[in-house]
Amino acid sequence: MRNVLIRSVLLLTLAVSALAQADRIRDLTTVGGVRDNSLIGYGLVVGLDGTGDQTTQTPFTTQSLSNMLSQLGITVPAGTNMQLKNVAAVMVTAKLPAFGRQGQVVDVVVSSLGNAKSLRGGTLLMTPLKGVDNQVYALAQGNILIGGASVSAGGSSAQVNQVNGGRITGGATIERELPNNFGSSNLVNLFLNQEDFGMAQRISDAINSRGGYGMAQALDGRTVQIRSSANGTSQVRLLADIQNIDVAVAVQDAKVIINSRTGSVVMNREVMLTQCAIAQGSLSVTVNQTQNVNQPNTPFGGGQTVVTPQTQIDMRQSGGALQTVNASANLNSVVRAMNALGAKPIDLMSILQAMQSAGCLHAKLEII
């Protein structure tokens, strides 16, 4: 009897632990002041196989090339019409990581600015990358890796993926470091990835329950502030320990995300339906227009040949049967109920909006 009781308690404990979900603080938050910074630059790509900019339509390409050559000691005669096919003007972007040090390398993204057909096989010439303060923080240069391909012959062409943009792995070298004040204060802010008052309070309680990490306080639904005597390198150890603390994740808000551009519909596991009836049909309108030629009855009657358009409109509505959707308490049941309607993603968006207005869909509807 005792063994049976022990096994029952163990099974109950396993069931409760399976229902409880815990995430690390590092997966739920970011540290205030520790972030990437965007860099941007304008440059030239050379060595293209006749797929560069058409300089008659992109005069800035030839102007940039002339300026670059003059800096190298080569003077282009005024009025020279350079017909270039192997050069393209590009924009170069990169991310300056937090705590980036001078001499470190970062990846860069190169994108065509003019009307180049492809950047395949091109080499980016030295390009300064500037921050929002107009200061140069890195220099980019190197061979571009293109992930797409394109072919054209006889007036026909085919293309796979993008050929007007690519990456250079480790293509930029950091030349200037960003000043940072990490460790100069005894306050550390943790920013939640998603606004949630309950989660902010649980993170604060989890830190305070461990002890030795200072006093944590939830300022709002997005920020948890930690006040500690640690500073400098001590804050590194402090954050290393705090970020690995597990926090129980409570039930999330029921939410349905609709992408109006692609027709994608995503819902989390908390979405529930109450019983409702839905009439879903499709309306198709077809417009056909033909040209009728009317000629005079007699060749010499003085009449003229007239072309008159004839338009025919056909409107049909199919479906429209009243469907009953039963109450559902989990995601699988919701998906099965939606599939039973036979609705396409575009139709499903309208159905979900109408269901929310009718109070049948218990979830927040967000359209992106």
Automatic annotation (TrEMBL):
Taxonomy, superkingdom: Bacteria
Annotated GO biological process: bacterial-type flagellum-dependent cell motility
GO cellular component: bacterial-type flagellum basal body, distal rod, P ring; outer membrane-bounded periplasmic space
Major location (coarse): periplasm
One of the record's GO molecular function terms: structural molecule activity
Keywords for this protein: Bacterial flagellum, Cell projection, Cilium, Flagellum, Periplasm, Signal
Alphabetical list of InterPro entries matching this protein: Flag_FlgI
Subcellular location: Periplasm; Bacterial flagellum basal body
PANTHER family noted in UniProt: FLAGELLAR P-RING PERIPLASMIC PROTEIN FLGI, FLAGELLAR P-RING PROTEIN
Role played: Assembles around the rod to form the L-ring and probably protects the motor/basal body from shearing forces during rotation.
Family (UniProt): Belongs to the FlgI family.
Name the UniProt record assigns to this protein: Flagellar P-ring protein
